[in-house]
Amino acid sequence: MSRVWLGVGSNIQRERHITAGLEALAGLCGELVLSGVYDSQAIGFAGQPFLNLVVGIDSGLSPGQLYSQLRAIEYAHGRPANAGRFSARQLDIDILTHGQLSGTVEGVELPRPEILENAFVLCPLAQVAGAQLHPVAGRTYAQLWASYDRASQPIARVDFQWRGRWISRAEPGWRAGHPGAAPVPR
């Protein structure tokens, strides 16, 4: 079994599709480790804002096998088979890391480059795996988030419930990228 970190996002009927994605992941993988849920602008295209979070799972599937399972979940929730990288989507589930694997493994680039590029990936990853080392950068996710230029991509944690409990609570006035924002939100 490997600890796998997944990025989950949606910008079409966001709450509905994030909830459906979490249900599908729980059905596939069992217990989930969940970060807070963050609102962020679309990156790379003009589109509606996204909701994003990071989900930790333990999986015995290889990266290629897991990738296939995740794509099936996306397609079941309306993702077009020909969806471009920078486009609106009902549900997007990306493998961020798979244990300490690095390089292109079974067609999956590990660790996913967006970890170091996007606040909506790095911030929630630092929240749930802050002490873990990035397999290539050799720094912890908390260290990487502490040195990230937050003003370049402001994000805001939002209220979000799943299975009748709060998995994310907005912090009044908290927005990554603004002075005084906590290094790693709770």
Oligomer: single chain
**How would you sum up the global shape?**
globular
What share of residues is helical?
A: 25-40%
- How do the helices and strands follow one another from N- to C-terminus? EHEEEHEEEHHHEEE
What value does the average pLDDT take?
90
Helical/strand content category: alpha+beta
State which percent range the strand residues make up: 25-35%
The number of helical runs is: 5
Largest sheet: 6 strands, antiparallel
Report the uncertain regions: 178-186
N/C terminus separation: 27 Å
Radius of gyration: 15 Å
Number of beta-strand segments: 10
Keywords summarizing the entry:
two-stranded antiparallel sheet, single chain, alpha+beta, 10 strands, 5 helices, disordered C terminus, 27% helix, 186 residues
Please provide a written account of the structure.
Strand 6 and strand 7 form a beta hairpin. The protein has five helices and ten strands. It has 186 residues and is of the alpha+beta class. The C terminus is likely disordered. The two termini are 27 Å apart. The chain is globular. Strands 1, 2, 3, 4, 5 and 8 form a six-stranded antiparallel beta sheet that branches. A two-stranded antiparallel ribbon has the order 6-7.
Helices, strands, pairings?
Layout: E1 2-10, H1 14-29, E2 33-34, E3 37-40, E4 50-59, H2 63-76, E5 92-98, E6 103-105, E7 108-110, H3 114-117, H4 119-129, H5 141-146, E8 155-158, E9 160-162, E10 165-168
Task: Give a quick precis of the structure.
By secondary structure, this protein is of the alpha+beta class.
